[in-house]
Amino acid sequence: MNDTVTGLxxxxxxxxxxDVMLRVMTKExxxxxxxxxxxxxxxxxxxGSILPLTKAEIHFDYKDGKSLFRLKTxxxxxxxxxxxxxxxxxAAASVLADACMHMxxxxxxxxxxxxxxxxxxxxxxxxxxxHTLVLSLYLSDMMKLFGIAADVDECVRCGATTIRxxxxxxxxxxxxxxxxxxGIPFSEVSELKRFRLIVKxxxxxxxxxxxxxxxFERDLETLVEMLRLHxxxxxxxxxxxxxxxx
Length: 246
Ligand SMILES: [Zn+2]
Description:
Elements: E1 2-15, E2 19-26, E3 30-36, E4 55-61, E5 68-78, H1 81-84, H2 87-104, H3 112-127, H4 131-145, E6 165-167, E7 172-174, H5 176-182, H6 189-201, H7 206-209, H8 217-231, H9 236-245
Parallel strand pairs: 3-5
Antiparallel strand pairs: 1-2, 1-4, 2-3, 4-5, 6-7
């Protein structure tokens, strides 16, 4: 069956002699793969339209039960120019792609919400919103979708509502007693508020949340750590991105 899909290209790897393999996040089919035959030849008509971290319209033959398809033609729909012209932003976008690939790889069906979150995050990076914040909001929203959101309503241990600390390991906020018994240092109130704002607000409220602080680096560190501890996901791209962050 002849099909067309619009997707976000997350990665590109060499495949056989002249081909490349793409991993693409789509609304309709979730995370799928494409083989672009001959894309590494000088004469390839598709080579310029299958760059990672762009949005492309892809024509292909869809077959039920498959997750790897043969790409016929591709056309760039959104290039995210500012991301590609900036080393820090491309490193940040790679973290988004990395997280998406890890979290969506076992999702065979469609993934409209996952797709929307990634597209929104890429657009916000491209528009120049703080990258530490956009990454934090994306990870937090994704964790919510996957049922591993940080608990920022009460102490994760005892349910008390007076909060004094945040722990990636415990998965959210802690009261003074629980934090003390676990040996976890108290946090500044402003830090707890900022983290709560991120988890509650999400990517829909980036413009409001970005006014709340000059830096969201610590929140991002906490969320990356939570993903590692509670979902077993190690974001390799994050170490590379962090080198540019300071
Ligand atoms: Zn407690």
